[in-house]
Design brief:
- The protein is an alpha/beta fold.
- The chain has helices at residues 13-24, 38-47, 64-69, 87-92, 105-126, 175-182, 224-231; strands spanning 4-9, 29-35, 52-55, 76-81, 97-100, 133-138, 141-146, 150-156, 159-164, 168-172, 187-191, 194-197, 201-204, 208-211, 216-218.
- The chain has two domains: 4-126, Rossmann fold; 133-231, Beta Barrel (OB fold (Dihydrolipoamide Acetyltransferase, E2P)).
- The N and C termini lie far apart (47 Å).
- The modification 4-aspartylphosphate is found at residue 56.
- One of its GO terms (molecular function) is DNA binding.
């Protein structure tokens, strides 16, 4: 059985055929249905459960954004469109990816793989299993980062910066929200502006935390109890 089910909605038949061609080349992916009429897609999605919908935006009757907003329990979504003006709205709707036509196979495959990762992440979280990665959105794209690669998280008001061994990500998220969401994975608050993974801590003193990779971060006075619990 395919582990990722997809529905495609686009009023242009050649675009539907291209997505079908791409899906046929992907393993463990099943394209359940394709619709040129968004009203028909809406009825199907209200009656059937799917993992991912690939939407065009500019369609007659109901556009892709309106269609997604009308779903009571929307699946994951990739917008595949000529439009660029809806990128911010797509971010608000938590779409997995925002692809601009024309899209080659490799780009489409990466976007679908991000959706697959997120489905697996939700499944493992629901089963309360220990994940070795986290999923988050940055620059309108859903990202997967392994815990072993995360150095620290730093807060900047409404945003946080997630620093990894490979790159840094700017995320629209408050520190408190991130801490609550991923605390079960071993993230620990060491400062009003810093969160680290407890497994990455080597030692600490009265004012600093020393990570296993040699990095040194500030230790807030009110957060020392978190470290004492960890090292007890």
């Amino acid at each position: 059985m395919a582990n990722l089910t997809i529905v495609n909605v686009d009023d242009e038949y050649p675009a539907l055929q291209l997505v079908k061609q791409y899906c046929d080349q992907l393993e463990e992916v099943e394209l359940l249905a394709s619709f040129q009429k968004p009203e028909e897609a809406l009825a199907f999605l209200k009656a059937n459960s799917v993992d991912l919908v690939v939407f065009d935006i500019n369609m007659p009757g109901i556009n892709g954004v309106e269609l997604l907003e009308q779903l009571p329990d929307p699946p994951l979504c990739i917008f595949l469109t000529l439009e660029t003006k809806f990128a911010v709205k797509a971010f608000e709707l938590d779409v997995v990816h925002y692809l601009i036509k024309p899209v080659d196979f490799d780009t489409f495959k990466k976007a679908v793989n991000k959706a697959r990762d997120f489905v697996q992440f939700k499944s493992s979280a629901g089963n309360k299993q220990q994940e070795d990665f986290i999923m988050f959105k940055s620059n309108y794209v859903m990202n997967k980062v392994f815990l072993k690669d995360i150095l620290w998280i730093q807060g900047f008001g409404e945003y946080i910066v997630l620093m990894t061994t490979l790159k840094k990500y700017m995320i629209l998220e408050r520190m408190s929200n991130f801490e609550e969401k991923f605390q079960h994975l071993g993230f620990i608050r060491i400062h009003k502006s810093y969160i680290v993974l407890s497994d990455h801590i080597n030692s600490y003193n009265s004012g600093h935390v020393f990570l296993k990779n040699g990095e040194e971060l500030p230790l807030g006075r009110t957060y020392k109890k978190n470290l004492k619990i960890h090292f007890s």
